[in-house]
Amino acid sequence: MSYDSGNVFARILRGELPSKKVYEDEHVLAFQDIRPQAPAHLIVIPKGPYVSVDDFTEKASAAEQAALMRAIGKVARDAGLAKSGYRVLSNVGEHGHQEVPHLHFHVVGGRPLGRMLQKAD
User: Fold this and answer.
1) Sign (positive/negative) of CA torsion 62, 31, 82, 114?
2) For the chain, which has fewer Cβ within 10 Å, the N-terminal or C-terminal residue?
3) What's the pTM value of the predicted model, to 2 decimals?
4) In CATH, which superfamily holds the domain spanning 8-109?
């Protein structure tokens, strides 16, 4: 999957689409998911044009990588999820069902989330 500068997250970063921001710094933007799957469902994205975790860890600076991890923890704490627990998820590629070609992490919580994957047959 290659980076598409017209993807929804790139458009949010450019201000072409609205978002309900919960955190922003020079490297990262976090906002509420428009189709939440739990009481708390936040999206955390790097501001650079990265497609996936492997792309990001290969090309992003150490400052960008550190900022992304700090942001994930901060938005979880700020949303009140640290005590009860939460899930951090990033879908990558076709088998991972990635829909948007911009690296993003879902921070999901606020209720019991159940098993992450079904058992293999």
Assistant:
1) negative
2) C
3) 0.94
4) HIT-like (3.30.428.10)
Residue 82 main-chain phi, psi, to 5 deg: -60, -40
Q: Specify whether the backbone of 110 is left (phi greater than 0), alpha (psi in -120 to 50) or beta.
A: left
Tokens of residue 82, six digits: 């640290």
Q: What is the dihedral of CA 31, 33, 37, 39, to 10 degrees?
A: 50
User: What does the pLDDT profile of the chain (121 residues) look like in tens digits?
Assistant: 889 999 999 999 999 999 999 999 999 999 999 999 999 999 999 999 999 999 999 999 999 999 999 999 999 999 999 999 999 999 999 999 999 999 999 999 999 998 877 666 6
Is-catalytic flag, 97? no
Query: Where along the chain do its domains lie?
Result: 8-109
The H or E element that residue 88 is part of is strand 86-89
The DSSP call for residue 80 is T
Q: Which residue of the set 41, 102, 104, 106 is catalytic?
A: 104
